[in-house]
């Protein structure tokens, strides 16, 4: 066996990277979706990524990436210390806002980044769920994409979700970031609102998409409207739309008991665990505390 080679991914590597990540599709949705949407050279969009490849005998054995927004993702051999040491070296001096992956992957990323003692706004081991969409029963409800006139409502909903569920710090900085997220939700076509009596009462979104697979995220129902099955219905209706255009599989992760019950009612089955780690503010890797 030749010595492993670590190198920046370059144009032309996309198909090989995706083929490697597709071997573990349920836990690589962020990496694969971002790669498909932005390629390897996007340096402005929040989900554009700088990607590194770890090769052994000319074959990809590991991939790690940092998005422009500061999120680190990786897929590689858990017991190969050289791979994780390389991730830590490449991230030195860069800002990081969070990371995610299977519990084993997330633990390796945390250690490689030297964040064992870091403060996290969210460090959650969540259930990972999968649904084959041919088993989905579509509900008889009305959903639609958000419009510009929905922006104030979206900002309020996403702000409440981020502060109450993801541990984001309350305040103007979070609200300003959320406003940008809401604007992208209107523009990118991946969010749906459940409409009852002519008004939005719940929302859902896909936070990662591929031609045959989507990942559900950002499901929200205002507190006063919860407990009536609205989360289940808006997610199922959105997935029915996706199925109609050829999507075959849906993935999501959640830790809430009520949310898990809603997703199981749709038909989702738990297939493992997934760790999501977010920090209250970006940190520079390798900087003194």
Structural class label: alpha+beta
Q: Roughly how many Å apart are the termini? A: 40 Å
Tell me the major beta sheet.
Answer: 12 strands, mixed
Residues in helices, as a percent range: 25-40%
Give the helices and strands as they follow along the chain. EHHEEEHEHEEHHEEEHEHE
Write the layout of secondary structure elements.
Blueprint: E1 5-8, H1 14-21, H2 29-38, E2 49-56, E3 59-67, E4 71-75, H3 81-91, E5 95-101, H4 103-112, E6 122-132, E7 142-144, H5 151-164, H6 172-188, E8 191-196, E9 199-209, E10 213-220, H7 230-244, E11 249-254, H8 257-266, E12 269-284
Parallel strand pairs: 4-5, 10-11
Antiparallel strand pairs: 1-2, 2-3, 3-4, 5-12, 6-11, 6-12, 7-8, 8-9, 9-10
Helix pairs in contact: 1-2, 3-4, 5-6, 7-8
